[in-house]
Write a structure and sequence with these properties.
Elements lengths: L4 H8 L8 E7 L5 E7 L5 E7 L13 H11 L1 E2 L6 H8 L8 H4 E5 L4 E7 L4 H12 L2 E2 L2 H19 L2 H13 L13 H6 L2 H11 L5 E7 L3 H12 L22 E6 L6 E9 L4 H20 L7 E8 L7 E9 L5 H17 L4 H16 L15 H18 L4 H9 L3 H11 L6 E6 L3
Parallel strand pairs: 2-8, 9-13
Antiparallel strand pairs: 1-2, 3-6, 3-8, 4-7, 5-6, 10-12, 10-13, 11-12
Length: about 450
Amino acid sequence: MLNQLCSIVLLMGPLITEANSEEEKLVLGNKLKVVLRKIDKCECVIVMLMFKAGIRDDQKDKRGLSHLAEHLYCYSATKSFKEKEVWNYYIQNSGVKGANPYEVSNAETTHDFTYFYAVIRPDNLGTALKMEADRLNGIQISPELFKDEVGRAVSEMDNVRSRPLNKALAIFDSMYDKEFPNLISKCGEEDDLKTLKIEDVKDFINKFYKPANATLLVIGGFDFDEVKNTIKEYFSDIPSGEQQERAPVKTTINSGAIEKSFELEQANTNYLTITFPAGGDSLSETLSLLIINRLLFMQIQTDSNYPKDTYPIIEYSQFSKEDRGCLFIMWEIKNTKLLNETKSRVLKSIFKYSENPIPTDQLQQFKFMMSMEFKVQDPNFDNPAFAQIPFHLLIANYALQRAIFSYHYEDTSDELISELDKMTVESIQSTAKKYLTSKNVKTFIFTTGK
């Protein structure tokens, strides 16, 4: 299923408040990790189950398997519940009037992990936990549902890739999926999807969708002791499975500059894509790249010197301690004559971080903001800047922010903040000189042909 929580999290940024909250972490005997976060102001509860299973776990001849597994896990019958009964229960008992069903219960497959979540009323929390435990204990995939969901997955793929923008991204994916693994399309390949069998999905779920490979988050208004006892009752006896270890994904740096041009059919605008494979071979470099990314994004949003009718539409990066990522920028450029001017200005903006130290006051500002994120403070429900965001989306996005933090930086917030305190303008400039160079830039231009 397609979900927009990730993009909203990026737009919202850190949400800080003085709201009273309590958090407790526990690990059950079957290795299921549990994060309980009680927030006094919250009148709903988010139940989120995250698995260490994603696009990176697809086999080369089974692209799209992880996404299809997500669909079938969401809708299949379990020992105690009928097909789609869990999904329908969440939709009917969210307590959010007039909400889009996919806002109160949804799932998403990312490069690194897959998550399922539901927004529910506190009095329905016990039932929701029972449903999640029953689902985790094994699903029953019917041939009819399997056929329907393969069709839906193919339809999603066709819909996504029929758009000129996504055609551009698909071209990029096909050329550099090894070097930029975080940008692989989750929809998969049609030929692969149509040859998948139920057994393929069952094997994937039996391998990855297990307590030892999962984190359960319950965030919102609830009673701590009651929820802990309920979780232990429902989840403790589920077989553990094996925790799936992965080799870090490493990108190749300084492998040579590349510039390629492509003509897009049925496109009425041009796209400029600039990428830098950027690993972060140490925690210090990882944090430096994150700070550079934030500064660059802020500058792009506020710089009035860029040519008119050009718009940054994607700004992407992923740098963690475990996986290597890339800095990825895509611009929409309506006037073909402005392509070269925009490219030159974007590259100038990026290269300046290796040529000149960033201002000390900016570094201090971003160090403070990032330390707040690493602490994962409570969402600021009273902040007028977020007044237009529906409450259930606000808390769902907070839950996802908390889950992503748990995935990438498990039990290391003190280490991160300590390393962040050591950051200097010199160390950031040194990292920029290593990764953000003319020898390392990959430029792709997608034109209308007009």
